[in-house]
Amino acid sequence: MVKAKTNYRCSACQHTVGKWVGRCPECGSWGSMDEAPVLVPVANRAGASGLGAGNTRSAMAAMIPSSPAAAITQVSSTTSQANSTGIPEFDRVLGGGLVPGSVVLLAGEPGVGKSTLLLEVVHRWARTGEDRRALYVTGEESAGQVRLRADRTGAVHERVFLAAESDLATVFGHVEQVKPSLLIVDSVQTMLAADVDGVIGGVTQVRAITSALTSLAKTTGVAVLLIGHVTKDGAVAGPRSLEHLVDVVLHFEGDKHSTLRMIRGVKNRFGASDEVGCFELRDTGIEGITDPSGLFLHHRTDAVPGTAVTVTMDGKRPLLAEVQALVVDTHMPSPRRAVSGLDAARVAMILAVLERRCGMKIAKSEVYAATVGGMKTSEPAADLALAAAVASAVTDVPVPPGFVILGEVGLAGEVRRVSGLGRRLAEAARLGFTHAITPEHDDPIPPGMKVKTVTNLGDALNSVRTRSR
Questions:
Q1: In the beta sheet, which residues pair with residue 136?
Q2: What is the reported pTM?
Q3: pLDDT score of 159
Q4: Is 287 marked within a binding site?
């Protein structure tokens, strides 16, 4: 007789050990080690149980699949075509729309607008076709609460069905009765699988529920949208394997002091994983913003010292951003450095380069740096614009109107190339900017735009001062 072997696998990180321990040696989770029986190969099982070579071949023959593997040229791709949700900004992030049988996980902080967005999605989905039914399952609210929000946002439709359920088996029963083409589960952490051990929202429950809903989507062709919670660090709550089970992972972000909301693609099996969709949360619902660049610019008639405009790349989307700086003399022994919307480490680096390479005496001055409109950027392409804004604040000479400044600044004061410069300049030209200061490049220049290429920070600042006279 061959003794069956049992390993123990961590439910949080999937680390496997040979004997049970109270704490996972890999991730440090307590009480997460579950039994994981080792699968013995068929040939070994046959030999161990006294089967001969002929019986082994019979056992292997029994494993022949009922349908043979098909050549990739014979596999139809029409079943994986995306269907538009009716919201262009949401379709952009999804890669064109929802694919039948796909599972999408939308995660975000409480109150950011996840439920409002998906309620608008089911409304647009239902009204675009007679055969489109949507089932909205909520485990956090009652059906009456969802109806009140739908009345407020105008998302009421006869082909949108509501169910306030937290039992997974009951949800499957609703799917069987309604036969929807789109299923919303709000949220996956509130669902309960009665035949699975663990508490609601626990690692074991979340994994089992997501696996069951994924299996439902693949077998029935129903597109499934899951709402997920996030941890205090902003990551998706639950086991890391949760993101591997689904097809698309989206993060819904927004500042509570701003109406701007952004959806970022983290994983996408049907399109690019670095797309960004912009929305505006209003009292009457949520609306997509097709041209968000104007939100991050302060439109004024006169030039003001301490401001500069740059173009950032958020995923594949170019966005114009205005960087502002204020330099104030102080008698305090430790001058203050306040940063909003920018990377504080890069701001400190730019100030040091200006002090050492350009001779600007700002070490004993207070410096405030910020972006306009609540935008957050940390990419190096905004370095040169930040340096120009600080220099403009120090000299009290404004950057000329119609200028856009792009480039990464190194510690030696050199201006380095940035990616996607052609797309950045095209976006700036579309919004009426006529002059640009950039590093040396071979990207196409938009018609009507004059570009000045520079190699170091001193040349860039001199070009700005020359145009200001």
A1: 162, 184
A2: 0.78
A3: 95
A4: no
Predicted local distance difference test score (pLDDT) of residue 55: 53
323 is in an annotated binding site: no
Q: Give the Cα separation of 120 and 2 in Å (integer).
A: 59
Instruction: Give the pLDDT of residue 143.
Output: 93
Whole-angstrom distance, CA of residue 266 vs CA of residue 253: 12
Q: How far apart are CA 457 and CA 230, in angstroms?
A: 41
Say how far apart CA 264 and CA 316 lie, in whole Å: 11
- Residue holding tokens 């699949």? 65
Q: Which two tokens stand for residue 267?
A: 């994983």
> For the chain, what is the radius of gyration of the CA atoms?
28
What's the gap between Cα 161 and its chain centre? 28
Is there a cis peptide before residue 187, judged by omega within 30 degrees of 0?
yes
Q: How far apart are CA 166 and CA 429, in angstroms?
A: 52
Tell me if 109 is assigned to a ligand binding site: yes
> Please, which residues bridge with residue 104 across strands?
225, 248
| CATH architecture group of domain 81-290 | 3-Layer(aba) Sandwich (3.40)
Which has the closest alpha carbon to 187: 114, 234, 138, 248?
Answer: 138
* Residue 33 confidence (pLDDT): 83
Domain parsing of the chain, residue ranges: 6-61, 81-290, 295-468
Residue ranges, the chain, pLDDT below 70: 1-5, 37-64, 66, 79, 300-301, 468-469
Is it true that 81-290 and 295-468 share their CATH fold? Answer: no
Does 110 belong to an annotated binding site?
Answer: yes
Q: Which residues contact 439 (CB under 8 A, 6 or more apart)?
A: 406, 407, 408, 415, 416, 417, 418, 453, 454, 455
Class at the top of the CATH hierarchy for domain 295-468: alpha beta
Q: Is 359 annotated as contributing to ligand binding?
A: no
> Is there a binding annotation on residue 179?
no
Indicate the residue type of 99.
V
Q: Could you give the angle at which helices 143-153 and 114-127 cross, rounded to 10 degrees?
A: 70
Cα 185–chain centre separation: 19
Q: Are 412 and 357 in contact (CB under 8 A)?
A: yes
35 is in an annotated binding site: no
Residue with tokens 């956090």: 140
**Predicted local distance difference test score (pLDDT) of residue 50:** 47
114 annotated as a binding-site residue? yes
